[in-house]
Write a structure and sequence with these properties.
Radius of gyration: 20 Å
Shape: elongated
Helix content: 25-40%
Order of helices and strands: HHEHEHHEHEEHEHEHEEHEH
CATH architecture of the largest domain: 3-Layer(aba) Sandwich
Strand content: 15-25%
Strand order of the largest sheet: 7-6-5-9-8-10
CATH class of the largest domain: Alpha Beta
CATH topology of the largest domain: Alpha/beta knot
Oligomer: single chain
Distance between the termini: 54 Å
CATH superfamily of the largest domain: SPOUT methyltransferase, trefoil knot domain
Number of domains: 2
Structural class: alpha/beta
Largest sheet: 6 strands, parallel
């Protein structure tokens, strides 16, 4: 059973100020929770219904074997703390990882997101980064919170495999000797580029692209040639194409 204070606190995590206050975020669904468990993410508490116990015995065994605290709740209670219209029956509360240990001296690739505002786009970019084994993500000031519920859902578990650092200045990478790659429609064809490693791929916000002060620091500007019609590509779609081409270098 849950008391009203627990319900109120958990529900408050849909707002950034409370995620920052408690240093926690919420995940929902068997698949997402299982991904968090297998990645050894710090799960503070799990809430699930009896139907989850009956339908997913292997999942239940995995959770129990990892020593995670569990509270069985009613369908009404799970509804009260869920962000979705049709709750799956399991909700987890996770700790937000400490991102203060930013290390730009390692010889690895990064993605830098410059004022990305749409939570769904951010989640998709994170999922794409994990697919291409880019494990380090830096966000500029003004980016949407990476632990926004919509971002977490669209990330499909990518959060648990990535190092995500908010409020990072691009100058840190410049000073560390990275090749800064700006993604812009005015740039050179990414398919025939020759980029020095290690690099940082910079993706700009949906409305205005990369900020001019950031763009001016880029070592090279790359683009995806247009073969048909349209003004631009969605930033999440563009990230997948750019990372595919850069992964071949």
């Amino acid at each position: 059973m849950m008391n009203q204070n627990d319900q109120k606190r958990i529900r408050s995590l849909d707002q950034k100020k409370y995620r920052d206050k408690y240093r926690q975020f919420q995940i929902e669904g068997v698949r997402l929770v299982e991904s968090a468990v297998l990645a050894q993410t710090k799960i503070v508490k799990l809430y699930w219904t009896e139907s989850v116990e009956n339908q997913y015995p292997d999942f239940v065994t995995t959770v129990i074997n990892n020593g995670i605290g569990i509270t069985r709740v009613t369908d009404k209670e799970i509804q009260s703390i869920s962000y979705t219209k049709s709750p799956s029956g399991v909700v987890g509360i996770c700790e937000i990882p400490d991102s203060s240990d930013l290390d730009v001296t390692s010889n690895t690739h990064w993605i830098y997101l410059d004022r990305i505002s749409d939570p769904g786009n951010l989640g998709t970019i994170l999922r794409t980064a994990a697919w291409f084994d880019i494990r380090h993500i830096a966000l500029s000031a003004g980016c949407v919170d990476p632990y926004n519920p919509k971002t977490v859902r669209s990330g499909m578990g990518a959060h648990f495999d990535l190092n995500i650092h908010p409020n990072v200045q691009i100058e840190l990478f410049k000073k560390a000797g990275y090749t800064l790659i700006g993604a812009d429609i005015s740039g050179d064809d990414v398919a025939i580029s020759n980029v020095q490693k290690p690099w940082v791929l910079i993706l700009g916000g949906e409305a205005n692209g990369i900020q001019q002060d950031t763009l001016s620091q880029c070592d090279t500007i790359l683009s995806i040639p247009k073969l048909g019609t349209g003004d631009s590509l969605n930033v999440a779609s563009a990230s997948a194409i750019l990372l595919y081409e850069l992964s071949k270098l």
